[in-house]
Design a protein that fits this description.
The complex is a heterodimer. Chain A is of the alpha/beta class. Chain A has 2 domains: about 1-155, Rossmann fold, CATH 3.40.50; about 175-305, Rossmann fold. In chain A, about 35% of the residues lie in helices and about 20% in strands. In chain A, the strands form 2 sheets. A 7-stranded mixed sheet of chain A has the order 2-1-3-4-6-5-10. In chain A, strands 7-9-8-11-12 form a 5-stranded mixed sheet, with helices on both faces. In chain A, α7 packs across α11. Chain B is of the alpha/beta class. Chain B has one domain (about 25-285): Rossmann fold (3-Layer(aba) Sandwich). Chain B is about 35% helix and about 10% strand. Chain B contains 9 helices and 7 strands, in the order ααβααβαβββααβαβα. Chain B has helices spanning about 25-40, 45-65, 85-95, 135-150, 170-180, 200-205, 210-215, 230-235, 275-285; strands at about 80, 155-160, 185-190, 195, 200, 220-225, 245-250. The longest helix of chain B is centred in the N-terminal third of the chain and has 19 residues, at about 25-40. Mean pLDDT of chain B is about 95; it is low at about 1-15. Classes of the chains: A alpha/beta, B alpha/beta. The interface of A and B includes residues 45, 50, 57, 62 and 63 of A. Bound molecules: magnesium ion. The site of magnesium ion has 6 residues of chain B, from β4.
Chain lengths: ~300, ~290
């Protein structure tokens, strides 16, 4: 995903000289081509995320569209107040990019597990929060964020994520992508959980269960209409995210459902417990928290057994 | 005093402001307006305001290339009040300069007012919102870097407090500006030697202070932050050296101008009573 992002950013930087990249001294093997080609649109702020974010806001207030770049929690939690006061309060064109959202750096330990970032970013006024589901979404999301003025958070996986979409996706910020259709259960995935979710839907299909898969790449603003449709048209909703179950996609969907007048749909959040996560590869960790194809299939079967058939 | 209202919209500003003839009188006017605002509002930080008002008076009276009729003029000099808690004085100056009606000052700190207790960018003439310490210099670095890369004429002035320099983010920005040779960036530190809970030397000593900035490749000057001629003289010399950002360590007195407030930590917090306001007003009015 990170190479899709940088590829997209380089194309954008060529077309639009306002587009800048400010890194917190990370992105080895990724940011160098950008730096070489666009030296006057690139800054390495050093290992100093607060300053990185303040600089980005200052540049944005002079007319630039500035992407800050780092990994895990460094570009978000480390400099949260700069994001809030300098970027969001001024509605500055600062786009925060984190590589390794979730458990991509699983073996590096809890310091490198970005598992509350969506919750925190989502709470900030004016912030757009996007977690693309595959490299194609990452590429199109980058472009869409440049076109949308104001602060945003772009949560990326790391590298080697499989494609979910074939070659094109109608990507609009705030609009879920319906990857498969079905009326038994809706699986709403965000970010790096999209691929496992589509595989789970394929397996459910073999069991005769029609699952609707939504790629909810934008967590804020949430596609409320897609949630309501799922509640009306399918028997159950499961949210799936590589993030704490507190404050992320599951919470966002739950808030919408809880306030809706006619919501009787069964609902489950799949995600990480509010606890410091164990050590291991992303594959190992997601599996141990049931964020696997098997885990999603099992949750879908369970919730449908409980769910009444539509009259 | 009005700012260059005769200028048509597309001409450049003069090299420097012709300025107000009487800087001491201007500073006195701002001190009285600030005292009136803070007294009426029963708000804090009068000492923090008074220690930097002579700096503000010279900046706005003589140095900054700005236009009250075009607060968003792209090539304006940027002034960032990083010690945003001293915004009452900034608001008083901006009203005096014609950025907004002076009547707004009467609403300072009141319910629903445009003028809150920390600097807010929604106020005409206020460049950025501040209030949490340690943000302004990074914002200034981003602006200065952009200005230099685009060969734009504007300069960036950031006014910090001494207590603010406890923040690690300040030193991230100090390193950055020195490394990137941001010649169009000027940091002014209101070095009044008092911070929130006591003397800077006791809480977290900054000494040797000027040396810290020069070690990070800034060109530094130390001045009496209450001597208008000295302030103007040094501000007209920026940048002090080629390829270096400029730092002015302004030695100041917290509460300057009102004898019973000077060097008293209490006036970081206390709002003057009616009697104290009258006494302050009398002292400020009689000062020559
Ligand atoms: Mg102080």
């Amino acid at each position: 995903m990170r190479s899709a992002f940088v590829r997209s950013l380089m194309a954008l930087a060529e077309e639009d000289r306002r587009v800048c990249l400010v890194t917190g001294d990370l992105g080895f093997g990724v940011v160098e081509p950008f730096a070489a080609k666009f030296p006057s649109q690139f800054v390495n702020a050093g290992v100093a995320e607060q300053n990185m974010t303040g600089i980005a806001a200052g540049m944005a207030l002079c007319g630039k569209v500035v992407f800050t770049y780092s990994i895990a929690n460094f570009p978000t939690l480390r400099c949260l107040e700069q994001i809030r006061n300098d970027a969001c309060y001024h509605n500055a064109d600062v786009k925060i990019v984190s590589v390794g959202g979730g458990l991509a750096y699983g073996a590096l330990g809890a310091s490198h597990h970005a598992t509350e970032d969506i919750a925190v970013m989502r709470a900030l006024p004016g912030m757009t929060v996007v977690a693309p589901g595959d490299p194609i979404e990452a590429e199109t999301a980058t472009r869409a964020l440049v076109a949308r003025a104001g602060p945003a958070y772009l949560r990326l996986g790391r590298s080697g994520e499989p494609l979910v979409h074939s070659d094109y996706v109608d990507f609009q910020i705030g609009k879920a992508v319906r990857v498969t259709d079905g009326d038994d259960v809706t699986l709403i995935a965000t970010g790096t959980m999209l691929h496992a979710t589509t595989q789970a839907a394929a397996r459910l299909a073999r069991e005769g269960i029609a699952a609707r898969v939504l790629s909810m790449h934008t967590i804020k603003p949430l596609d409320v209409e897609a949630v309501f449709e799922a509640a009306r048209e399918t028997r159950a909703i499961i949210t799936i995210e590589e993030h704490s179950v507190i404050g992320g996609l599951g919470s966002s969907v739950a808030e919408v459902l809880a306030e809706s007048a006619d919501c009787h749909v069964r609902f489950k959040r799949m995600g990480l417990p509010s606890a410091f996560t164990a050590i291991g590869s992303r594959e190992f960790l997601t599996k141990s928290y049931s964020l696997s194809v098997e885990g999603i299939v099992e949750s879908a079967m369970q919730i449908l057994e409980l769910a009444p058939s539509c009259a | 005093m009005q700012s260059n209202k005769h200028l048509p919209a597309d001409t450049h500003m003069p090299e420097t402001r012709s300025g107000t003839p009487d800087l001491a009188g201007y500073a006195r006017t701002i001190r009285i307006a600030t005292a009136r605002m803070i007294h009426r509002a029963k708000s804090s930080h009068i000492g923090s305001c008074f220690s930097m008002i002579d700096l503000l008076a010279v900046l706005y009276g003589r140095i900054l290339r700005i236009d009250a009729l075009r607060p968003a003029w792209p090539e304006r000099d940027r002034f960032i009040l990083s010690k945003g808690h001293a915004c009452a004085a900034l608001y008083a100056v901006l009203a005096e300069e014609g950025f907004f009606p002076k009547s707004w000052l009467d609403t300072f700190y009141q319910d629903g007012s445009a003028l809150g207790g920390h600097a807010m960018h929604s106020v005409p003439g206020v460049e950025v919102s501040t209030g949490s310490l340690g943000h302004g210099l990074s914002l200034g670095c981003g602006m200065a870097l952009t200005g230099r890369r685009e060969a734009r004429p504007f300069r960036v002035f950031v006014l910090l407090s001494d207590g603010e320099c406890d923040e690690g983010s300040v030193w991230e920005a100090v390193l950055f500006a020195g490394h990137h040779q941001l010649e169009n960036l000027v940091a002014i530190v209101d070095y009044n030697k008092i911070q929130s809970l006591g003397a800077v030397g006791h809480v977290l000593d900054l000494h040797p202070f000027a040396e810290k900035w020069s070690a990070c490749r800034w060109a530094v000057r130390e001045i009496d932050g209450h001597n208008p001629d000295e302030i103007e003289c040094v501000l007209r010399q920026v940048p002090f050296e080629a390829n270096r950002p400029s730092c002015i360590v302004a030695h100041t007195v917290k509460g300057k101008g009102v004898s019973f407030m000077e060097n008293e930590l209490l006036w970081h917090y206390r709002s003057p009573s009616d009697e104290e306001f009258q006494a302050a007003f009398a002292e400020l009015s009689s000062a020559s």
